[in-house]
Amino acid sequence: MKCFYHPEQDAVGMCPQCGKAACRDCMKEVDGGILCKGCIAQRIQAVQAEGKAVLQDRQATIDRATRRLKISKTVFVVFFIFGICVSAPMVYHTIFSNDPQLPGLFRIVVVPGIVLGSAWTGYVAWSFFWGFPAILAGLRRMFSKIGCLVVLNPVMWLILPLVLYFITAFVGTFYSIFGGGLSQYLKTRRVARGEV
Ligand SMILES: [Zn+2]
Ligand SMILES: [Zn+2]
Q1: CB within 10 Å: which end of the chain, N or C, has fewer?
Q2: What is the distance in A from the centroid of ligand 2 to the CA of 50?
Q3: Residue 107 has what pLDDT?
Q4: What is the model's pTM?
Q5: C-alpha 15 – ligand 2 centre gap (Å)
C-alpha cells in the first residue's frame, strides 16, 4: 500500500478519519489521535474559521456599543440645545429688558441657571436612553421566566399593560436618573473599548 500523498512511499497506516493510506511523514498525532496531513489541514481551517467567526461577533458587539455611545451623546446635545432654545426668549427678556422690577441678582443667575437647566434636560434624556432599555430588558427576562403564568391567566392580560407601564415609568425614571443610566453608559463604553 502506497501513501496517498506520496505515491512512491510505502504507507504505514490509514487515517482513521478519511481512510486514506499515508506514509510516516504524512501521519501526525493531533489531540491524542493520529490523522493524515489532509485531515489536519482541514481541522486547522475549521479552527481558524471558528476563531474568525468569534472575532467578527466580537467586532459586531464593539461596533454596536460604539454606535449606542454616539447616539447617547447626540441625545444629550439635542436636548441640551432644545433647552437653550426654549429658554432663549427668557434670557433675552431678562438681559435686555429695562424693567426696573427685575432684580439684578435674577439677571446674573438666569444665564447659568438656564445652562444648568438645559444640561439637566440633556442629562435626563441621556439617562433615559440608557436606563429604559435596561429596565425593559430586565422586565423581559423576568416575564420570560413567569411567562406561562401570564399566558394562562386572562385577568393578567388586563392588568399586565398597566403594571408594565407603571413599573417601567417609575422604576425606569428612578433607575435612569439616579445612576442607572450612567452605569449602563459605562458598561457599554467598556464593551466598545473591547474590555468585556
Ligand atoms: Zn485523513
Ligand atoms: Zn506521505
Answers
A1: N
A2: 28
A3: 75
A4: 0.67
A5: 12
Compute the distance from residue 24 Cα to the ligand 2 centre, in Å.
6
What's the Rg (C-alpha) of the chain? Answer: 32
Count of structural domains, the chain: 1
C-alpha 22 to ligand 2 mean position (Å): 5
Helix axes 181-192, 37-96, angle to 10 degrees: 140
Rounded to the nearest integer, the mean pLDDT of the chain is: 88
Residue 141 lies in a domain: yes
Q: Is 133 inside any structural domain?
A: yes
Residue 160's pLDDT band, with cuts at 50, 70 and 90, is confident
Q: What is the DSSP string of 84-146?
A: HHHHHHHHHHHHH---TTS-HHHHHHHHHHHHHHHHHHHHHHHHHHHHHHHHHHHHHHHHHHS
pLDDT, greater one: 151 or 180: 180
CA distance 103 to 99: 9
Separation CA 129–CA 138 (nearest Å): 15
Residue 152 pLDDT > 80, yes or no?
A: no
Rounded CA-CA distance 187/137 in Å is 15
Q: Is 136 part of any domain?
A: yes
Would you mind telling me the total number of residues written for the chain in this entry?
196
Look at residue 59 in the predicted model and tell me its pLDDT. 95
Q: What range defines the domain where residue 142 resides?
A: 62-192
